Amino acid sequence: MDKITPFDINRMLFGDAPPEFLLEVFFRGLALYLFMLLVVRLLGKRMAGELTVMEMVLMITLGGSIAVAMQVPEGGLLMGFVVLTCAFSYERTIAWLTVKSKKFEKISQGQGIILVKDGVLQIQNMKDTNITGQQIFANLRAKKIHQLGKVQRLYLEASGTLSIYKSEEKRPGLSIFPENDEQIIKLQKQVDGTMACNNCGFIISDFNNQSCAECGHSHWVQAIL
To answer: Residue limits of the YetF C-terminal domain (predicted)?
Structure first.
């Protein structure tokens, strides 16, 4: 092995390959780019939208598969073409199996998980999916929802997006505004005699300093409309 000289500018810029190899890298990259563009085109419009878990894995595979074929002198273009073709074949096979089998679809794609049910945070589901209350509140505020009572269901979809279904029933709930925004909190309409669990949003009207029946916490705040 040749001795490595620290801060060798020529080695730092060109590596062990001759400078002329950069021109070859350009044409390798162009060929693989055009081929990968064709593969993504054949995969359909789904690849340009929100990705499922399997599609995300495929995109990572596509990106990683061309690195060696494009940059390493010892690696040929044919290897990159074969890997891209294999990735395309795998995705088409999985897509076909997903359409044919609901069980396989559930295994490969996952399914939606309830994070809010009838105005109450589903704490265990949030723990299982590593979703925090503040992340949920931020998404609800973006939809101009200011309290949990307005949410009938909130799902974490298999694609990672949140689907929100508002409740048509007018009911009190836990405020989801930041606690340090005192100005807007003062403008909220409180419901006398109705308390909300500050941990999950569970509502009670016969408050007696008890623990929350939903999550077991005992920190209560005034519910709002």
So the answer is: 100-176
What are the sequence ranges of the domains in the chain? 9-108, 113-224
* Amino acid occupying residue 48: A
Overall fold of domain 113-224? CRO Repressor (3.30.240)
Residue 112: which residues within 8 A CB-CB, separation 6 or more?
Answer: 155, 156, 157, 158, 163
- Helices 102-109 and 53-71: crossing angle, nearest 10°? 60
Which residue shows structure tokens 């589901």?
125
User: Do 125 and 154 contact (CB within 8 A), yes or no?
Assistant: no
Strand order from edge to edge, sheet including 203-204: 203-204, 190-197, 220-224
Render pLDDT for 175-218 as a digit per residue (tens, 0 to 9).
988 877 777 777 788 888 899 999 999 999 888 888 988 898 98
Is 90 exceeded by the pLDDT of residue 67? no
Q: How many helices (H) and strands (E) does the chain have?
A: 8, 7
| Long-range Cβ contact pairs of 136-145 (< 8 A, separation 24 or more) | 136/162, 136/176, 137/176, 139/164, 140/164, 140/176, 141/176, 141/177, 145/176
Q: Look up the pTM and report it.
A: 0.66
